[in-house]
Amino acid sequence: MAVFVANESGASDVDEVRLAALARFVLDAMKVNPLAELSVMLVEPKAMTDLHVRYMGEEGPTDVLSFPQDDAFDASWSESVDDDPTTLLGDVVLCPDVARRQAEQAGHSFDRELSLLCTHGILHLLGYDHAEPDEEREMWKVQSQLLASWDGADGADGARGAADGGEGRRGDQGRRGDQGRGGGAGEPPAAPAR
Q1: CB contact burial 97-121 (16+ within 10 A = b; e otherwise)
Q2: 161-188 pLDDT per residue, tens
Q3: Under 8 Å between Cβ of 48 and 65
């Protein structure tokens, strides 16, 4: 399973290796086909604002956007992986500046917020959504379980993750900035350079 992380945000405090490991952990836990490829991009607020306006029709930067790539690709693992071509699952775009503000508001670490946002974005690529209350409950449940498992496997920030239920969301913030998995208003942006 290939995970590509490109930090174009200028943020020097992002642990790209840890972020890639988290993404692999989530993909493996969700039993995603091992031939799938994922790109995670970290961008500055201006770039995130441009994407947010273009694909979601909303002003200002957001925390995470997800852009699925190969809709026909079966993301689940099968016995016949040798017959399946390697394909791009999609892109998760994160904005560290927004994540940093949200982490301060939530009272947890910046790394914790990036982990939450990356996990959230991957779940959107796998078809999870939160437009309806039932969908939101299911997505938050899976997200919480994944983050709790990651905390146990990683050991970093685990106490805080368990204390906030692994969600890292405040009760008054039911809406995510990446509604509808992004890209709904047209083609997703070209895959990031690798």
Answers
A1: bbbeebbeebebbbbbbbbbbbbbb
A2: 333 333 333 222 333 334 333 333 233 3
A3: yes
